[in-house]
Amino acid sequence: MLAQRMSLLSGSGTAAAREAAKIAAATGRQIIDLAAGEVIIEPPSSVREGAIAAINAGANRYTDSIGLTPLRGAVAAKLSAETGIGWNTDNIAITAGAKQGLLDVALAVFNPGDEVIIIRPCWPTFPSQVLLAGAKPVFVDVRPPTYTPDIVAIRAAVTPRTKAVIINSPNNPTGAVYDRTTLQAIGDLAINYQLWIVSDESYSSFVFTGSRHESIVMAHPGVRSRTILVNAFSKELAITGWRLGYFAAPPEIVSAAKKLQSHTTSNANVIAQHAILHHLQVGDGSFERKMHERLSDARNNGLRILSGLQDVSSPGADGSFFFYLDLSRLVSALPAGGHLRSTDDIARLLLEEADVGTVAGGTFGDVNGLRLCFGAPPDLLETGLKRVVETLNSLKTRQPA
Ligand code: PLP
User: Ranges for the Aminotransferase class I/classII large domain (predicted)?
Assistant: First the structure.
């Protein structure tokens, strides 16, 4: 008999979508996977060289549970340069991906009975981890086309039990990038109601409109003492499997993570830590520029193809690497009595008929959405998106099965 907390969790919908694509591929079909949340590109040579050097130098032992001190220092320096705000080693914890950093925060900060505001559609790990900590997710829904939160709606969700608000800009799945005014308003609200801000900035390298990513601590420096800024190398360096992330926070939160990680994973993988340290020491930014260029081209090309959709507006895709389609008009125009009634049905059809893996919005708490990753290799992306457009445009005229 499993513990009760397991009933709080449903499996990851994004992992299930990837799994479905893999199963279809195993039957010999050429599946184009636009369900994944990663960019298919060779990681930087500096990371690989750093890993090999670490192995050859015999880097086998445990490290400090929140990471090698030089790596924490290098991350503090990186973040200081990116945000224009000074960060020290004691503000940084190295984690096994952003996911572990977020779980540390949930366990260290949320009490049973606390409420945590989450902007929805959302990456499903946010509410799952809040539940694991015994707290209650309180959702504030955002709408197309901007998917940007309305501060009035967030304020209406605050109660005396509210402990924190979790934000994620650039956003998975919607691609929204919150503007400075929105970030400042969230900052003011957190100060007024004495809330923590958990700001997941895992997609900070991928902003395609405007200038650069703006962290909430840049938009509103006054919130720094109540902000936990979570980030990772997973997406930025295309090393999702290496499992290396970090968070920047007041030292009390870092100390709590040190305790937690000493009883959970001990430390993030030592080879990965050395590899990233090497990259931070010798990298000249060329990989990051190449990656941004590749994704920017993919986004432009993809938006051109998606502009051929009928009954579906073009997505914003201002940041992250997802096209998030609002299928509400299309779903309501589907022939009555047919076997296609929801975005889940449509995602299933795209896999079965067009051989394209996608993620239906239900995974993110939004029955109207469909997420397509534009990190796939460019030729496959182009073919996959054309098939998506062709299939979606054919739906309205199909006879009920
Ligand atoms: N945060 C967001 C918003 C994500 O979308 C993801 C992965 O999809 C993560 C964090 C996980 O990052 P990591 O692989 O570093 O744990």
Answer: 30-387
